[in-house]
Amino acid sequence: MFKYRVFKSPEHEFVMSVGLGMEWGGTGSSTVGAEPFNTYTPTLFFGKGLGDLPDTLSWLRPVAITGQVGYVIPGRNFTTTFGVDPDTGALTADTEFNPRVLNWGGTIQYSMPYLKSSVVDLGLPDFINHLMPLVEANLQTPVSNTLTSGTLTTGTIQPGVLWVGNKFQVGVEALIPINPQSGRNVGVIAQLHLYLDDIDPRGIGKPLFGSPVQAPFQGI
């Protein structure tokens, strides 16, 4: 993924970036959905914190909203699979159109570290003050070349919680399908993020270009 920040407003806790992702074709097994062609995804990212709200709404300042919209462009418009009819022995050809898909979604999260440091210290246990409950959505909508795929939106809603430390972050989320076409069971995903620049700021965490840049606001 190539990503470039195009706008930021620290006073309004807003940031916007554009990116280009690429999945290399032929690098995985077709049994798990790997395609034989490249896929390109230009994407718009944004994040907005609510720290600029007035004092009457100070309890909402730890809320942050992030979102992204990407347009998935397959390297081939269609894929044709050849086979043999088991009854007649005749050669068969099955053509599947590869749709262009809108990948969209976002998160809404509440930062307990931000609440303590920038709004009010409620005297809660230290473990609670490191939590960040959130709800995430990841959705896909075919928008063109949809002759064989249809245009139904699929995806998941993912409620969960993060625990944010000084050098790492752990989290767990439920994966709830939005419709039967997205899945029929609720799943679980866990994650571990290591902050390389905090673990070793003079080594593996050092930026390749330029100097370290502090995040414009907490939570995004």
Description:
This protein is mostly beta strands and 220 residues long. The protein has one domain: Porin (Beta Barrel). The chain is 5% helix and 50% strand. The strands form 2 sheets. Strands 1-2-3-4-7-8-9-10-11 form a 9-stranded antiparallel beta sheet. A two-stranded antiparallel sheet has the order 5-6. A hairpin with a 3-residue loop joins β9 (154-164) and β10. Mean pLDDT is 89; it is low at 216-220.
Q: What layout of secondary structure does this protein have?
A:
Elements: E1 2-9, E2 14-23, E3 39-49, E4 63-74, E5 78-84, E6 91-97, E7 100-110, H1 112-119, E8 131-144, E9 154-164, E10 168-177, E11 187-194, H2 196-199
Antiparallel strand pairs: 1-2, 2-3, 3-4, 4-7, 5-6, 7-8, 8-9, 9-10, 10-11
**On the 0-100 scale, what is the average pLDDT?**
89
Architecture per CATH nomenclature, i.e. the level-2 architecture: Beta Barrel
CATH topology: Porin
Order of helices and strands: EEEEEEEHEEEEH
With strands numbered from the N-terminus, the spatial order across the biggest sheet is 1-2-3-4-7-8-9-10-11
Structural class: mainly beta
Q: How would you describe the shape?
A: elongated
What amount of the residues lies in strands? over 45%
Q: Tally the helices: what do you get?
A: 2
What is the helical fraction, as a range of percent? under 10%
Q: Low-confidence segments, ≥5 residues, pLDDT <50?
A: 216-220
Largest sheet: 9 strands, antiparallel
